Amino acid sequence: MTATVLLKSVDINIPGYRILRPLGEGGMASVFLAVQESLDREVALKVMAPALAANAEFTERFLKEGRITAKLSHPNLVTVYDIGSHGSIYYLAAEYIPGGSLREKIDAGLTVAETLDIVCDVARGLHYAHEKGFVHRDVKPGNILFKLDGTAVLADFGIAKAMDAKSSATMAGASIGTPDYMSPEQARAESVDGRSDLYSLGAMLYEMLTGEPPYQASDPFTVALMHVTQPVPTLPPEHAWLQPLIDGLMAKQPEQRFPTGEAFIQAVEQLLAAAPEAASIKDAMAGRRKAGAARLAGGTTRLVRVREGAGRKLALLGGGLALVLLASGLVWWLAAPAPEPVPPPAGPVAVPEEALPPVVHVPSPVDAGQRDLELMLTQADTYMEYGTTSTTDPGRRLVAPPEDNAVDLYRKVLEQDPANARARAGLTRIAEYYRERARKSCQRSLWTFCKTLAEDGLRAAPDDGELNALREQASRQAGG
To answer: Has 138 been annotated as catalytic?
Structure first.
């Protein structure tokens, strides 16, 4: 049997799947609740947007990486069952997770206890995937889903992995993804590793605690730039005791972040064991456990998380059973009892050094000028990289607006450090970019456009002979 529905004027006809109803739609794909008929199970069927399906490079990478990703199996990752194509339709069938997304929970409001449980779940999934060699690249609330027992799971590994980290699809302001959770290296279109996902987890943690993303601006490009140039965000006073977690996840340099998801989880556990503010968090966890037990009355059996001290274990509650056999035949073993919790010491306590990220040097006044130069260079490099490589918005922020463009920023750096190699290299690349575009415009007799491009290039390299010649040629032709 086949299923046919209407999706943006494209008939979806995938043998072996019966579509029940739509679940959601985005710029990248539409998702349907469907039945995989061979196994008679419900799945989330993700159908790629026609614009992406028409991109041969993307579809080839999507199928290749998706098949590999389907081998990932972890309680905190959505399981991929099937990936393939039928005609011009590319699809992915994944585990159906019915408990909603983290976006909905953030909008409704989360307690600190709920927040820490969720981010630790996601960190576990990321740790497993990173050890297998996978980087997600799009960790955000919309990609965190919840099982009925409250377990948080990370979705869309196959699709995110199909993206080339150096392609324009991952650049700031592109139609795919959102810059609200983008690591600095991803915003600069550099190569990324698992620590980039951990940065995104930190941005998400900040939003879960405060209700707002860490950086906000009127356009996506500026938000991405803020991830590169702005300091690590500071939590409000009521959450200040959790600031080491934000610092260790959102450090601008990857080597200053928690190295793995497991290292982050250990830091959370040690904060809960040591910080005086954690007492109320533990009480809240205990209250949620009691509420969960009440919901199990009547013989219903489900998984409930239990945290004791700095550890964590899974227990099976309900119907007086401590252990059940699941329908799939998997056996869940009850964890060994945790030792009696040790009361926290009186007076102020410090988080153990091994739980924190590497100490970051605080610049002295002598360092301030160099730090400002570094910030200007980083901002200029970001503008230059985007403006010279973007296919959708070429030339953006290379020479305008005044004082906030790559050329002006490089000039400011050279005023303070005339021999600065990065600034000189950036101006050279911008001049080359405009020289090439002006040359092509003149060859096509687009004289006005050629003149404008040559003049923009001369802002980066006033003495460039070819740019001056192109401007003169275009001026003569336009005047004639």
So the answer is: yes
